[in-house]
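Quick one: structure for this chain?
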Amino acid sequence: QVQLVESGGGLVQAGDSLRLSCAASGRTSSLYFMGWFRQVPGKEREFVARITWSGRSTAYADSVKGRFTISKDNAKNTVYLQMNSLKPEDTAVYYCAGGSAGNYNYWGQGTQVTVSS
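Got it. Here's what it folds into:
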């Protein structure tokens, strides 16, 4: 089993920055990639960014490309999502997820990000 704990959410103004953290513990050797997703009430959860456990490969949703950066601290087993130039439409609950073999098997509890205009 893998446990994921997110932190770093909050209320900010449009244009501000925020950094989310996701600490992984347990059988992290089973993970191949980590990702960030977000969800707004009444909408489907959407992909934001992904990074391989090695940290060598990343991918982003078009809506955040150029503004968000995903990174990983291998020594701390922690994945970060640096969010710059935040927009009100970035408001959502952000979830950290981990997985292998094409599936996200583990999810964190979520952290709320609210961007005011």
